[in-house]
Amino acid sequence: MTRLEQGSVIDGFVIGPRVHSGAMAELYRVTYDGGRPDPGFPMIMKVPRMGGGEGAENLVGFEVEHQMLQVIEGRHLPRFVAAGDMGRLPFLVMEYIPGRTLQDILDEAAAAKRRPAAEDIARWGRAIAVAAHSLHRQEAVHLDLKPANVILKPDGDCVLVDFGLSWHAHYPDLLAAEMRPAIGSPAWMAPEQVVGVRGDPRSDVFAIGVMLYELATGELPFGAPATTGGLRQRLWMVPAAPRALNPAVPPWLQEVILHCLEATAAQRPPSAAHLAFDLGHPDQVVVGPRGLRTARTKFSAHLKRWFKAAGMEYQPSPLPSTRVGEVPIVMAAVPHRDTTDATLYALRQAASRSLGIRPGARLACVTVVGSGAAQEDEAAMHRFHSELLRQWVRGLDLEDRQVSFHVLQSDDPAGALLAYAHANHVSLIVMGAATHGLALQRWIPTVPARVAAEAPCSVLLVKDAPPLALLSPVEA
């Protein structure tokens, strides 16, 4: 391709310095020509490589990214500005995102010969999962998540870039129609992508697991295969336990990482929101044999998995939003005072109905206590209220669903509940319609109404329903 000259003008954009030259495209900083004010954010122009020997996938990927950037939006995605004519010079102009890529962080860790702390890995991973969830809710799947395509902003937020291999439920899949069956970057590609199934949001969860694995160990769980046979190994191979490569990895983090890397999509976290929840609440992660393992998997176990994978059929996924909707995070706001047995019973029944028959649904039990307790009593207070939540949930048939317990300390109960729902991408809040265990009577009428008015999700306000009131009266 012909390199663009700095200072030249193309379709009203002044070409600035080149900031990146990749295998498929080059990136240039640009501004508007003719004194037009910039759109309120810095801009970058992406020009696909089109010289001799370049594959057709560059132009197909350009068309896909152009299509995607026009229909997806949000703070986790670059804003679209303009596109060039395919017949003359194809280009895309979009928002320039300042920050470091995850690849920069990996390179720095490798140079320092030191792995990042588990807390940092969890924070970065959670930011990526939140960004992926935002994309999935818009009926899109990235399908090429890797460290170079993840930008971590100074404020801790994450932006995903490079949508040339992505999939959207409402538009033709140009890549599947024109390209090879396995589409993606080999090191981060999910098993279902290897066999040609696109559109499952859990493929992005797998890719996040690969990035978490590399952050924790400095290695890729399945290497960087260059052949179809090498790619297919992830259909049956169990990666080495991160703790075998880096003993500093805590069991809870290994549990989360290996959960993401399961060969079958149904065995991974059911959505990116669930993954973000686990990374944001490590104390609530249930650690099993997967998280405690330090030895490598035996050859006999790999052989069994190989036979199983040989006959496995991958089915197309339902719409991403449908998949996300099938595995909600249900938050039960459980009062701890100024309440009655009838209220607690009604909440329990409503929570059970809200979980329904969806096996991937998660229940988060939350209570809010005032901040007046003495500092030295905080640990005991949290243990006490956590035990109250555990007693409340014993009346529920959870059917092996994930459940967690959270004690929030705040003098603003409604604000605390709203902040929790926002931060954890809660799908439904179940709470009492009359009270929420508040220390001050003046709060009682306002908390449910405020939560219902300001919540980022649906809210189910439950009235008292004591068990005896449900029985028909006995006629004399």
UniProtKB/TrEMBL annotation:
InterPro entries named in the record: Kinase-like_dom_sf (IPR011009), Prot_kinase_dom (IPR000719), Rossmann-like_a/b/a_fold (IPR014729), Ser/Thr_Kinases-Pseudokinases (IPR051681), UspA (IPR006016)
Lineage top rank: taxon: Bacteria
Any one GO molecular-function label of the UniProt entry: ATP binding
Entry keyword set: Kinase, Transferase
Signal sequence, renumbered to the chain: none
Residues of the Protein kinase domain: 13-284
A Pfam family it matches: Usp
Protein name: Protein kinase
The organism of origin for this protein: Ramlibacter montanisoli
